[in-house]
Specification:
This protein is α/β, with parallel strands linked by helices and about 425 residues long. Helices cover about 40% and strands about 10% of the residues. The N terminus and C terminus are likely disordered. It is a single-pass type II membrane protein.
Length: about 425
C-alpha cells in the first residue's frame, strides 16, 4: 500500500498525494511561473516594437537637437548619387552600391529626380538644361506656349523629372525641402493615378550668398514678389504673423538696398539654409523668422548641411564645368551642350559699388548661408576628386564635356538678365 504525505498549501488545507508524485506536483507551480514570466517578457517586447512603429512623430521623435546630432553622425562625403535616405523618403541604394560600375539612374524603372529650385541660384537655366539638353532615348517633349515639357520614361508615360518645367510648381512656388519631401510622392500618385514605390533623387543648386542676395534684391526691386509661395510645414501654411510682409501694396518695386536689408523677417536672409533645412525641427516658420535664437539658427544650419550632403547631387553656380561633370558622372547621363560660366554678372557690378560697411551688413544677414556655402564647396570638390580618380577617361571627358552629339547652341547660364518670373504664371498643376 502506497504511503501518503501531506503538503501544506496557501489555503491551509492538506492535499493528499501519492508519495511518488510528490516531486512532480511540487515543481508544477515553478514551471507555470516561468511560463508566465516568459509570456510577459514577450508581450513587453512586442509592445515596445509596436509603440515605436505606430507612435506619432510628435510624441516619440527625438528632440530637434538629438535628431540633428544623430543625423550628423553620417559621413557627408558618402551620399554621392544616392536617393534621399530612409528617414525622409523611400529607401534607396547605399553609397557602396552607387559606386558599382553598373549603377544607373534608372529611367525604365521608378527613379524620380526632384529639383529643389532656390531663387536666384541659376535654377531657371539649369532647369531648362534638364528638359532640353540631356541626351536621352526619349527626350522631353517641350511645349513653348505653356513653358512645360513632358519628360516621360522610354517605355511609359510615367514622369522621371519633378521640376518647374516638367510638372510645374505642384508643391508650391519655389517649394523648399520641407514642402517637397511632404508633397512629391502624393502629387505623383495623383498625377499618374496610382501609388508607386519610387526612389527619389533630390538635386539643387547653390550660389555664393552675397551675390545671390543682391540678385534677389534686384529682382524684387523690379517687382517680383513670389506671393504664391505656400510656406507649408507640418500640415499647414504659415500664417501672416509668422511670415509678415516687408512692404505694403502689390509689390516692393523700387525698394532701396537699405530698406531691403532693414526688414528683419526678409525671406532673402539666409534663404539657402532655410530652404534646405527641415523646418519642423525649429517649429516651422514660428522659429525661423519672428522668434529666432542662436540655438534655432545652429539647428537650421546643421539640418541644411545634413540634407544637402544626403542629396544625390548639388551644383554650384560659380563652378559650372565641375557641376556639369559631377552631374553626368553621378547619374550616368550626358548633356548635349557644355555649361557656360558667366564670371561677370550684374550682381558682381552691384557689389563693386557697395561700401565695405554695406557688404559687411549683408554678410551678417546671411551668415548661415556663408557657412553652408563653404561646406558645400568643400564637399563638392571632394566628390569631384573622387569621381575624377575613378574615371580612366577623365582627360578626354573633361576636354569634350557636352559634345555627345552634333547639336549646336548653348543654353547659357545668365544669372541676372533673365527677367522671367513665376509670379506671372499659374504655379500649381500647370
Amino acid at each position: 500500500m502506497q504511503k501518503s504525505v501531506s503538503v501544506q498549501v496557501d489555503s491551509d488545507f492538506a492535499l493528499l498525494l501519492p508519495s511518488g508524485a510528490y516531486e512532480i506536483k511540487k515543481m508544477e507551480p515553478r514551471s507555470k511561473l516561468r511560463k508566465v514570466i516568459l509570456f510577459c517578457l514577450l508581450l513587453s517586447l512586442f509592445g515596445m516594437v509596436a509603440f515605436g512603429y505606430f507612435c506619432p512623430d510628435q510624441v516619440c521623435a527625438l528632440s530637434p537637437r538629438e535628431r540633428v546630432s544623430e543625423s550628423l553622425a553620417l559621413t557627408y562625403a558618402e551620399a554621392l548619387g544616392r536617393p534621399l535616405p530612409d528617414v525622409i523618403a523611400q529607401p534607396g541604394l547605399s553609397y557602396d552600391e552607387v559606386l558599382h560600375d553598373d549603377f544607373r539612374f534608372d529611367l525604365d524603372a521608378h527613379d524620380v529626380m526632384v529639383f529643389l529650385h532656390i531663387q536666384k541660384t541659376g535654377g531657371t537655366s539649369f532647369g531648362k538644361h534638364l528638359v532640353m539638353d540631356l541626351d536621352l532615348k526619349r527626350p522631353c517633349n517641350c511645349q513653348r506656349a505653356r513653358k512645360r515639357c513632358h519628360c516621360f520614361r522610354p517605355h511609359s508615360n510615367e514622369i522621371w523629372l519633378f521640376s518647374r518645367y516638367s510638372t510645374g510648381w505642384k508643391c508650391g512656388l519655389h517649394a523648399d525641402f520641407t514642402e517637397l519631401t511632404a508633397c512629391v510622392g502624393g502629387e505623383l500618385d495623383r498625377h499618374e493615378g496610382s501609388a508607386v514605390h519610387r526612389r527619389y533623387f533630390y538635386i539643387t543648386l547653390l550660389r555664393e550668398p552675397v551675390a545671390r542676395y543682391l540678385s534677389e534684391y534686384r529682382h524684387v526691386k523690379r517687382g517680383a514678389t513670389w506671393k504664391g509661395s505656400r510656406h507649408w510645414c507640418q500640415g499647414r501654411t504659415a500664417t501672416a504673423s509668422e511670415v509678415p510682409p516687408c512692404y505694403t501694396g502689390e509689390s516692393w518695386r523700387g525698394v532701396t538696398l537699405e530698406e531691403f536689408a532693414a526688414c528683419p523677417w526678409n525671406l532673402a536672409n539666409n534663404r539657402q539654409t532655410r530652404m534646405l533645412a527641415d523646418l519642423a525641427l525649429v517649429g516651422c516658420y514660428n522659429g525661423t523668422l519672428r522668434h529666432r535664437t542662436l540655438d534655432t539658427e545652429r539647428v537650421l544650419l546643421a539640418s541644411a548641411k545634413r540634407n544637402l550632403a544626403a542629396m544625390a547631387y548639388f551644383g554650384l553656380t560659380e563652378f559650372q564645368k565641375i557641376s556639369q561633370y559631377v552631374f553626368e558622372e553621378t547619374f550616368n547621363l550626358r548633356f548635349a551642350v557644355p555649361f557656360t560660366q558667366h564670371n561677370a554678372t550684374v550682381s558682381g557690378a552691384t557689389m563693386a559699388a557697395l561700401s565695405p560697411a554695406q557688404i559687411a551688413h549683408i554678410k551678417r544677414l546671411n551668415s548661415l548661408d556663408l557657412e553652408l556655402y563653404e561646406f558645400a564647396k568643400n564637399l563638392m570638390f571632394k566628390r569631384f576628386e573622387a569621381l575624377k580618380k575613378r574615371d580612366s577617361d577623365f582627360d578626354f571627358r573633361w576636354k569634350h564635356l557636352g559634345e555627345v552629339s552634333p547639336r549646336s547652341g548653348v543654353t547659357e547660364f545668365d544669372w541676372d538678365s533673365n527677367l522671367e518670373d513665376a509670379t506671372t504664371e499659374k504655379y500649381r498643376g500647370k
